[in-house]
Design brief:
HSP20-like_chaperone; Small_HSP; 158 residues; A-crystallin/Hsp20_dom; mainly beta; single chain; SHSP domain-containing protein; 9% helix
């Protein structure tokens, strides 16, 4: 765990030695033991579950943008459920391993993701549009016109 290799012939440094270069990590080994009880399918799901989604409201619509790099439109699903719930889901499959392949680093995550958003009252859920371009999923939910009811003055007699 030392940041600089020891100059004393590979001597292990000690956390109780005041000149030691060890950095104590209170979580060292915690995550490995905690994840040992989690099923492998849950680990795969959690790896890709943090799909980032932005939601902005314009005068005309609610616009959602999700980063889904490397996914095809067949691998992403956009649904509107009862109660104005927008559901965005998808899955990135693991790359097939060949026996002759030698992996040096695996950083891209795989697994499933699912995000749900409750749409406001003014959302036109029957006119939702979605597009996927350059790894960005854009979902546009038009808004109902926010016209105020016409106020008609009433003349008072008497």
């Amino acid at each position: 765990m030392s940041l600089i290799p020891s100059i004393f012939g590979g001597r292990r440094t000690n956390v109780f030695d005041p000149v030691s270069l060890d950095i104590w990590d209170p979580f060292d080994g915690f995550f490995n033991s905690a994840l040992a009880t989690v099923p492998p399918s849950a680990k795969e799901t959690s790896a890709f579950a943090n799909t980032r989604i932005d939601w902005k409201e314009t005068p005309e619509a609610h616009v959602f943008k999700a980063d889904v790099p490397g996914l095809k439109k067949e691998e992403v699903k956009v649904e509107v459920e009862e109660g104005r719930i927008l559901q965005i889901s998808g899955e990135r499959s693991k790359e097939q391993e060949e026996k002759n392949d030698k992996w040096h680093r695996v950083e891209r995550s795989s697994g499933k993701f699912l995000r749900r958003f409750r749409l406001p009252e003014n959302a036109k859920t029957d006119q939702v549009k979605a597009s996927l371009e350059n790894g960005v999923l854009t979902i546009t939910v038009p808004k109902e016109d926010g016209k105020k009811p016409e106020v008609k003055p009433v003349e008072i007699s008497g």
